[in-house]
User: Fold these one by one.
Assistant:
Number 1:
Amino acid sequence: MTAPAAGPLSQALLELAPDHPDLLAVSADVVKYTDLAAFAARYPDRVLNVGMAEQNLVAVAAGLAKAGFVPFATTFGVFATRRALDFIEIQAALNGTNVKICGGLPGVMSTFGPTHQAIDDLAHLRAVPGLTVIDPCDAAEMRAAAVAAYHHDGPVYLRLLLDKAAPLPEPRAPFRIGEAVRLAEGTDVAIVASSFLVGLALAAAQRLAGEGISAAVLKVSTLRPFDAPAVAALASGVSAVVTAENHTVVGGLASSVAEVLAREGLGRPLRAVGVQDQWGPLGSFEYVTAHHGLTEDAIAAAAHDALRAAEAGAGAVSR
Amino acid sequence: MSLERAAHRMRLRAVRMAEGKGEGYVGQGLQTADVLAVLFGVELRLAGTGGEDRFLLSTGHYSIGLWAAFAEAGLLAEADLDHYGRDGHPVAMSTIDGALPGVELTGGSLGHGPGVAAGLALGLRMRGSDGRVFVYLSDGELQEGSVWEAAMFASARELSNLWAVVDINRTQADGPLVLEVEPCAAKFRAFGWSCVEADGHDIGALLAALDELRGRPGPKALICYTEIGHGVRLIAERERAHFVRVGDDEWEQVRRELEGTAP
């Protein structure tokens, strides 16, 4: 039997394992579906399966951390946050426990519909004091984020973006927790993007340039702590702001950006690309993303809409 | 006899704490004294005091009993008990992990202790430690599904260093058990645990039960049948309440009754 291929999480764990004997993985019956199989094939004694029991997954991980291990606990994002939220809040976040909760199938990545699409995990966890929340934008960043999560002393929720995201152009800035990165400069509109929408935002910005619109792109891969200074600096140089996220527009990136704009007194029209406060269908990634408008087209359209609102607002003020 | 005397001192401390605060889980403090006197008096060899055992109080609002036991074991100064439940003081109405040396779990949200204890027991075994993990939980807590997630996991992983102390007082927040938990021992046995039942106010029976469990395989459950407010009729006979109200004028009577029963 050939060894399973290592995706970005297994690659990170395989890289860390030889020098870090405290590294463990724990899963709630999704070793194969959260990219732990390759790590488990190489280190079978360092992968524990608790079965289909997400509360116990987080509790056991917290107990292992108390014994001095650094567990990566994997389940799907929906189950981590909908079934085990109390355990994440109390046994991970409140206690500052050194566990890394990994949420598979982030946003609309699942073809299996609302039961498996974690469209609200960030909203739940953004409200949890003491927790670091990471939403990587492509596979390479996913791998780097897992390594960074290991080295971060404290509880982390890491969204497992394993595939389907277009890789960012290289070379890229090294991944650092809490640091938003400006990928394109622009003077008309700013696109603040996360997850696989970062790649779509870059494509949308290029298209907008062809239409005479100068669009900046900011990649936000850490939702908490949120890089408010980067967002404020970006927004102050443009007339309108668009957010684009693999999540409902309630409580995630759009809300985080809106809070910064309000706090800084930066009155800019804001348009949010994301799941529009609704449940979605089962179906292929292409079908589901088209249904929710998680597309390059939708980002470009939102930029136009936001700029129209900015112009109308400017006219209103001058009258 | 010395354990009976320790339990009696712990009951006096529980009453002192609750009276000082003017309210509190005095019923649970009285109820847990015998079991905790045995555990802290002769059974546990705690990490930080020369041993490797850990004690996790899942039922956080039983902290009043834990503080009394800590004082008996020398982990807390007697004077610290005067701050029970006072704003800003770690001798609190519930337990926060690390708030005081020896507090190993944040225990207020019920059903968390067994899973954390199972993970800790597994981790200690992987580290080659001989330490045991004791988790104290209550019967009402057994209604939380997470308890049984942990119970299934503990036996499947043969965590013979995990001990659960299940305190059956047949009371929960809404009063007398609102959902039957018996047969409790049969449930744990069905989940693959070694299990012994004992009268939670009979020191000799508790010691014998612990001895009986010691050599048994897999995770172990000591099921203790207790009475809320045990040792003070005024409290035990009051309407079976989770959070007993004692009038300002009644504390003197409570203390007199307790002092009159010194072993």
Number 2:
Amino acid sequence: MIDRANTSQLLKMTGISKSFSGVKVLSDVQFDLKAGEVHVLAGENGAGKSTLIKILAGVHTDYQGQIFLNSQPVRFASIHEAAAAGISVIHQELSLVPSMTIAENIFLGREKCRGPWLNKKEMTAEARKLLTEIGLDVDVTRNLGSYPLSIQQMVEICKALAFACRIIVMDEPTSALTDVEVEKLFTIVDKLRKSGRGIIYISHKMEEIYRIADRITVLRDGTFVGTATAEELDRGKMVKWMVGRELNQQFPRHKSLPGQVRLKVNSFTLPDPAGKPMPAVNDVSFSVRCGEILGIAGLQGSGNSELLNGIFGTYGSNTRGSCELDSRPYKPTTPANAISRGISLLTNDRKANGLVLGMNIVHNVTLAALKKFSPLGWLQPNSESKAAAEQKEALNLKAANLKMQVDSLSGGNQQKVVMAKWIETEPKVFLLDEPTRGVDVGAKHEIYELMNKWTSNGLAIILITSEMPELLAMSDRIIVMHRGSITAEFDSEQATQEKILHAAMGVQTN
Amino acid sequence: MIKEESSAKLTKLSSERWFTSPTARAFGALIIVFALGLLFNADGAFYKWGTHRDMLRAVSVYGILSCGMTLVIISGGIDLSVASILALTAVSFSLFTIHKGISTPITILACLVIGALCGMFSGAVIARFRIQPFIATLAMMVFARGMAKWVSGGQKISTAVQQSDGTYKYVNVPQIFNFINSKVLGDNITVVTLIFVVCLIISWILLVKLRYGRYLYAIGGNEEAARLSGVPVGWTKILAYGMSGLFCAVAGMCQAAQELQGDPEAGMSYELSAIAMVVIGGTSLQGGRGGIWLTLIGVLTIGYLEKILSINAIGEDKRLMLTAAIIIAAVLLQKGKK
Amino acid sequence: MTTCILKGRKMKRTISLLIITLLVGFIAIAGCSKKPANKEDKGTKAKLTIGMSQCNLGEPWRVQMNADVKMAADKHPEIKVVYKDAQNDTLKQRSQMEEFISAGVNLIIISPKEAAPLTPVVAQAFQKGIPVIVLDRRVLGDQYTCFIGADNKKIGKAAGKWIVEKLGGKGKVVELMGLMTSTPGQDRHSGFRDGIKDSALELIFEADMKWLEPDSRKEMESALARFDKIDLVYAHNDPGAHGAYLAAQAAGREKNIVFVGIDALPQEGQAYVKQGIMQASFEYPTGGKEAIELGLDILNGKKVEKEVTLSSRVFTKDNIDSGGQWLKD
């Protein structure tokens, strides 16, 4: 191990604050990195980790605070400046071109030239050298796309290495790797560490963090909680740092009396929609009753969102396992089929796939249940307007005129329109994926009240939310997922933030 | 706070609403063109009803193509094959009626089926294999044109029927051709124009009155949101292109009747005119917005423009430049403030 | 993020059905269609082979040219004609010529797309000892056996003179022009102007209808709207004249107007004259027949002229049944 006392400080960030449209996402955060160390950055979803990294990488140029690189103050005006300063970021989404060769990819954007001509010979030789350095034996002149994802990820790392970079940021690099490949990655990380570079490592996997970290920094809700060495900070303490917040009883969850089992899911498996080798959902079984709210907790990459989408039929019938709806078999095929069986899904991105922004409120509200409003295919605009008006009342939707286009509504009202749309389909199971994301406090509470009302009418709800307090307050039962599998199941009384986070980071509980 | 915001928006809407609406902007271009006509009226030719009736006749075939194009563009796609399907059905129509003497109702049905099948084929390729509409309909454009040339042997199919010894026998023009060419309502309007009006009405019903139309707008506006809301995206698209093919067939039969022949080279570049008419009317190429009456305005705008240039005997070179200028001006007028 | 594969079996089945229906439908139509007039001769073993290189078969006039070649060749069982269509692609026409050369045909007839790019390959054949007849469009230089073609300027002038005579030296005339960026259009225009220059004819309206019938009809409608009196319409091609006729007919004025066109294809211009739609159609001969006849002369060792200008006929109601009247030079 390198003597830490004598190592130089590569990076220091102090007083970092940033807001997006008035919402503060980082508040006076500090972070430092020494040469030859692996420094893990930990925190729940929405803690501010990726925003901090983006500021470091030059993606966000508008922030408060200071960054020092080798004790020199810097302020990057662009990604290129950050890269030129020796900061390399390896994102989860690879920035490689499958149709180019490995050598071309490594030198993408920074090709070696002799005058105006590309110096292919030098680049190929250099690429080969880099790959052998990290123990990878592949043909650098073959197209990248012909190699599996894990190799591609290694090449991404080589890209970082090719440019005399001092600081490497890795964001969840092992999510797509098998155990053998993970070991290879750790070997590379070790080599990098020994060569004096500094590595910022983001991970949600408990075991991984403790395997690789020299130091750990925890962020929570945009604030800096603390930094400690891996030896000093035990698992329990880290989790407490990540969740340790006051839980105010602001949530009006009524006591529920769940009835029959409405939806039963057995051994549900879903291959990764993006083509990664690991399935997104792996052998998941659970059930939810009428009138019950089942919360599914999970950090990024847990597969909870994919689970709900898989049940809804977003990915077609490319699933394994069996489901039962009211004791009758149900197979996900298409969203249209799910809707006809009484399953509705509120997606986590209303602008991308929840609303047709160019249409008005009435048309958005009736879209999923249009058959109801158009006997023999002939539209009945009056009945549509009537239904929309009723929904406006029921959901307390604030809009001057129902003929307004939905893109002129606030976030909370937009979310209500989407909910109205699904309620019009008279669902039996309502899948909610981050229903209060981007919604103001007032509207949030209204949504909670609505969830109460619906469940008291017998609706079964499955709820995904990254906000721990919301999850704990509104769920009757909670299951926790990590990388596609269920790691824990709790009743609402038994659940605590720490227990949930432990399970979300891969520790099998129960 | 939110309530205030919304009511402020509403006041703004009602006072400016009509003047900034897409319909008003489309009218703007038409009014300008019409005014040009009054100004440059070619010794009073513009004031005669005959001129307007002729303009309507000439523009009707393009207009029928534009009806189908409107449906397809609203769904977020484009159809480059309209002219070729027009040629294919023009040739088939002439072949069946003039050369084979098949009865009119069956011929019309057969031609409609040909057009619809071509369109549905493009639609199926787009929906099932996720091929871009531009590419898929480009392929159909080439294919249908080739079919038209093959079926007709490269020759125009007219009332001069070639016999086996090389001489020509002249048959009578079929009744249906004469009917389509005739004028009604006291010689004031041509049948072709009425057919165009019928196509407009059918398009209106599809887009505004039927659930199907709502699906088209939803898919054009946000295809993924539509799909996840249970809209049958695949079938809706196939039907949209099928309807476009159907309208092309109608246009092809009108074209053949007006020329008294089926010309495999018919309709060259008509697809560009159809697209221009839809776009000038205000329907967005991105999809999800627009309507059939906007297209009508676009059709009339270009129709009048061509007519005015024609009666004033403007040279070809100046014509091209002026037409381009008016198109740009019309589209800029469309932009305005949202 | 979502990669949805519409694997619905129902969808697959319906689409396959659609494809099959489409194919069956097309085959059915194809069965109904006419046989193209320029299919190759399937006959007994012929002694001499003639290669016919046509620049495109998109224009009906060129289809007629090939048909004329075939009709003339059919009369001589000792020759066989091989047809190649370059689909208006200069490079394709060049390779097809090269194919003729390596196949060692006895004679080549070529109607080239453009002069300069095809001159070398024509010269190559000529120098190899294969006689080459150039038809309708020229090549550069003199490395070919003979050129056969008609003169658009002459025809335009003849039309002009005929019109002057028909109208008694004065009247109001509309000229509907072919694509004025093409040589035939320019020649038929300048020839016409030359033919009427000493008369009192008034050209009241002229428009470029690009050889297309629907365009011609639109322009004629404008002319009719503008002018109460039109005596004659001179169109650069017969489809143009026909379109103008239809416009006049729709306005009820066709009986008061004389229609004159150029090309006189049997199923077009000649048919229109026969039916009384046009009063005169000037032949723009394809030269197909002459090419075969001259070709035979060459193959039989006779000497032929280097430049053969085709004569043209004018077809009017009076002479349509007797095969038209030859124009004096």
